[in-house]
Specification:
The complex is a heterodimer of chains A (about 350) and B (about 250). With about 350 residues, chain A is mostly helical. Chain A folds into 2 domains: about 10-260, no CATH class; about 265-335, no CATH class. Helices cover about 70% and strands about 0% of the residues of chain A. A two-stranded antiparallel sheet of chain A has the order 1-2. In chain A, helix 3 runs antiparallel to helix 5. The longest helix of chain A is centred in the N-terminal third of the chain and has 30 residues, at about 95-125. Mean pLDDT of chain A is about 90; it is low at about 340-360. Chain B is α/β, with parallel strands linked by helices. Chain B folds into 2 domains: about 1-80 and about 165-250, Rossmann fold, CATH 3.40.50; about 90-165, no CATH class. Chain B has 9 helices and 10 strands. Chain B has helices at about 45-50, 75-80, 95-100, 120-135, 150-160, 180-195, 205-215, 230-235, 240-245; strands at about 5-15, 20-30, 35, 60-65, 65-70, 80-85, 165-170, 200-205, 215-220, 225-230. A 6-stranded mixed β-sheet of chain B has the order 6-7-8-3-9-10, with helices on both faces. A 4-stranded antiparallel β-sheet of chain B has the order 2-1-4-5, with helices on one face. Classes of the chains: A mainly alpha (about 350), B alpha/beta (about 250). Chains A and B meet through helix 8 and helix 9 of A and helix 2, helix 3, helix 4 and helix 6 of B.
Amino acid sequence: MTRTSLHPITIGLLLLVGVAAPLLFPAYTNQIAVLWLMIVFAMTWDTLGGQMGYNSLGNIFFFGAGMYTCAVVQIGLYYDVGMYTSGARTTHIVFTTAQYFTGFAFGVVAAGIMAAILAVATSWVVFGLRGPYFAIGTLGVAVAGAELVASWQWVGAASGISMPVFPGAPQTQKLFFYFLLFALAFVVLLFLRWLYSTNFGMAINAIRDDEEKAEAMGLYTRRYKRTAWTIAAFFLGIAGAIFGNMIGFIDARDIAFPTTTFNIFMILMVLLGGKGTFWGPVVGAVVFHVIKEVTWTYFLGWQFVTLGLLIVIIVVYFQQGIVGWLMEKYPERFGVRAASTEREVRSPAIKLAPHAEGAE
Amino acid sequence: MNDAIIELTNVTKSFGGVVANRNVSLSVPRGRITGLIGPNGSGKTTLFNSIVGYHPIDSGSIRFEGQEISQLRVQEIARLGLLRTFQTTRIYGKMSCLQNMQISIPHRKAGFFDMFAYDRPDVIERAEHLLSFVGLYEKRFLRAGSLSFGQQKLLEFAMALMNEPTVLLLDEPTAGINPTLINGLIDRLKRANAEFGITMLIIEHNMRVIMNMASKIYCLAHGEMLAAGAPEEIQGNQNVVDAYLGAH
């Protein structure tokens, strides 16, 4: 049985790392903040791709949708959105501290809810598809989202939106968004640990292993799939809201719905760390992020070549990922028990009348 | 035979130009074991798939406890308590045997928040009882995919029992199992029938097995119902013998 919560020592270590990192490496605060974002990406992608066996290429849709929802709420609370985003605007708009934080708080909540609503709505379409068709269908959702927003004048179309400016010193801003992203990753880890320990975890694993069997056993497979998709969307929406404000300028194709960067990174990190394992996505995110930052810094111009090479190497030679490989090598350390040697005293002749109240 | 729990009337199913079932009528008496035999390609599995809603039928009617189910979908029929096992064994390979059992609880009344229920002691206890019933208790923490084929069949059978079905449709339960295990399986099928009162409809090629268990046997050939009757009658039926030996 999976534990319902993270081990207290693990929680302590996570908090320690989360708090100490920006203090020890203040120059890298933003990079580490993005690392927590990457962990959220990888964990939420793995809920569908790893635990449920539905490889989505469209998760980024909810990230972008959350980002834009938050922006619209933040601006719309105090100004006319169309006027704010208009290219003809010449006035300089400044948000007061109170306006900024109120708008941001409402925006983050709205982003999560909006992403969840969009997930429920799209689930009717995408879960009519399976296997590679699901992957392509979800990619279609993401690309369509990007194109729609990129041509929507009211939200700035292709020229994007300059987000309200953070009312504080740059260092405060860095730490503020750092801790928000860290808190989000922390909550996602705790939440998914709990989720995977419930029936839900078993059901989505069953769908991954044999969906037809699960249907034949009477599982409400659609309900599970839709809920998993919605949960991932909710967290991605919030992540988008925070990230959009952290960057300060959002645009549809490159920042909100980056189908060829963040969208692919999610999958890559999970594959690198180990699909369908709890810590795999985290390990994958860390390793990937380090590799990415190093190549972006030292091999600029070649970064996408390195990235492509990494994809090829992982897919061809290292499919089970780091944690997956460790689990294969040392199964006992991961609680996978070999044939138990304890002999049972329980006789098979035991009375087997079905339980009166049933195992409902 | 008024107490029929499953009643098929003139069921026809064709795939393109191939008629897999033509005007098949059949009734499964409540609380009994009924056999379905026939040479390869005679339409037995197609008939099973039609009953459990795997594909729509062209014409005819399928009733389960008096209710017309030919329009329902697989999950809905499963939740009514009409469950099938597969000819090619299907279990959740990457999950442990115990988890395979836990997720096989009946989902009849499962509400939204039941999705997030924890390991319930009564569910685990029942799962362990049933695993020891089929002789897999020692292997409960192993990955189901690492079991041998025969053991996987036993696990699939235990999962079906976990679901507390009213009727169990078994597609070749003894195929690929070694002869020693077969005797144990026959015994367990009979006990599940007697102790849980589960009605069974069994497709089987092993005549010794089916003649031993079933109270009534139907024989399909070329998609049509060739004969029906008690095991002794079927054994003596010249048409059935011819169908199996290829006189048709």
